[in-house]
Every structure is written in structure tokens, then in C-alpha cells.
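Weekly structure sync, notes
Attendees: PL (lead), two postdocs, one rotation student
Agenda item 3: pending single-chain targets
PL asked that the sequence for the first pending target be pasted directly into the notes so everyone works from the same version. It is reproduced below exactly as submitted, 298 residues in total.
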Amino acid sequence: MTGPQTAAMVEAHRLGLRIWLEADLVRPWQDGPARLHAALRTVHGLAREPGVVGVKFTEALGYADGLTVPGRIGRFLTEVGDALAGAAPGRLRLLDLAVPELSCLPDDPARPHLATVAAARLRGRYPQLAIDHVHDYLRLGAADVAQVATLPRSSATYAGWGVDDDTAQRSAWSATVGYWGRLVRLYARADLTHPGAYPGDADSAARRLRGAVDVPLRAGAEAVDAWTWRRPYLGWVARLADPGPRRNLLWDGLVARHGAGTRLLTHLDPGAPERTVGADLAMIATACTDVYLAVGVD
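Predicted structure, written out during the meeting:
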């Protein structure tokens, strides 16, 4: 199999990056067996390339992908999890999901009333992502790794609850590991992006990295997905590095953690690099151990 994905995989492997195929299989599954089988054939061909360790097969499952009924989500996981095991034998299956309720101090025995009310509202808005349902999904055995976004609320909201951002993240990740740490391997997903040049100072970069990277790892997450290298998003380009690409304070913090042995991941679409695929991957390899490469099956 040839193409930009394969060329990117060859270069990523040369740089020592662990490679994950980013192949959201929700839409192909919704479109029917023929479409799903075609997507799985693509995954099968790429998964055999050197350096590939796994397949990320969802993007925020159940959040904005049209899957809103727990039973249907369970069916998707059962069918696709089994099919993916056959299409990519020996590769890890990674389920990405956001759990809004985790942002509301779930592990705090003295949770403020406002946080309890907020959690109830989020369960009402996203019933398919309630903690109990997520537990059921992960018990199906369809994924080896769960990558969890806790969707932190604003600093002002947490201040109104009498806590700071780090306390809220510690609660979220203590709960995450307690709920699901025995069912799957856990990665954290954190949005560290900005438009244009990074606007913060050294203190703000340190705070963001502490909450997004350090807190989940100390709680028991194996790795952190620093979303995202570069992606057009809602009319602007979300990015980790500054345009060019060039370093910034946030990036330097990721590089330092990488040097200390932290396992970090980010995403690259080989069809839309910042500069060139080779240049982008070379910079990514200074901060990350793993890279998600978009496959384009949806």
C-alpha cells in the first residue's frame, strides 16, 4: 500500500515514534457492513507496517458522533471491537471518549452542592456518557486502551466551587483510575492548543501542563495525548507549536517532560502538515513518543 499515510509511517518509524492509526470507525459502521468492511481493509493494510502499535477507532465516542443510545453504543463496540481485532491482529485497540461528569469533582466526598447540580445537568444532557454507562462500555472488552478527556470547566467555575483547577483534575483522574483502571489501560487526552502564537507566559504554560499532563500521570494514566499538532477547527487552526512550526513555552514544557521519560502523544494528518510531513514529524519526535496518523476512513 502506498500513499501519504505510508510515507508518513515510514518517516515516523525512522524517527523512533510509536505509530497509531487514527481511524474513526463510527461513520463507516453507521453506513453499513460494506462501508465498514472497506474501512477495515484500509486499516488492515496499514496496520502491518513497521512501527504500528495500535488503532484509535473512535473520536469522543458518543459525544457528537450521532451515537446517543447506550445500547447502540454497546452494539458498535462489540461489533467493531471484534472486527478490528481481526483486521489488525496484535495491535492495541484504543477507544477515545469524553466523560463530561468527570469535570464535577466526582472523587470529592464533600462535593459542593453546585458541583453536584452541574454533574446532574451533564448526565441529563449526555445520558449516554454517564459514568455508569461508560463502565458498561469498557467491560465489553472491545478496547485495550481508553483515552479519556475529563473536559475541565473554567477556572472561574472551579473558584465558585471553592477549588482550583489542579484539585478538580486530581478528583477527575482519581475517579477515572478508580473506576476503570482495572478494565483497560488509561491514557489522558488534553486540549493544549491555541490559535496563532502561544499567548501565555511561563507561569501560564506551567499551570496548563501541570493540570493536563502531570496530574493524570501521577494519578495512574500511562500516557497523555496532547491534542493536537495542527487541525482546522471551527474556523481557526488549533495547534501546539507556533506557526512555522516554531517552539513556544508550552512546547518547551512538553519537550522537557519527554526528556524526563514522560510518554506523550499527538496527532498528525499527513495530508495537511504545517510545513512538510517530514519536518513536522521531526519536531513532534522532540516532544512525543507516539503519534496518531490520520487514515481517513470516515
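Discussion points:
- The radius of gyration is 19 Å.
- The chain has a mean pLDDT of 96.
Action: rotation student to compare against the earlier draft before next sync.
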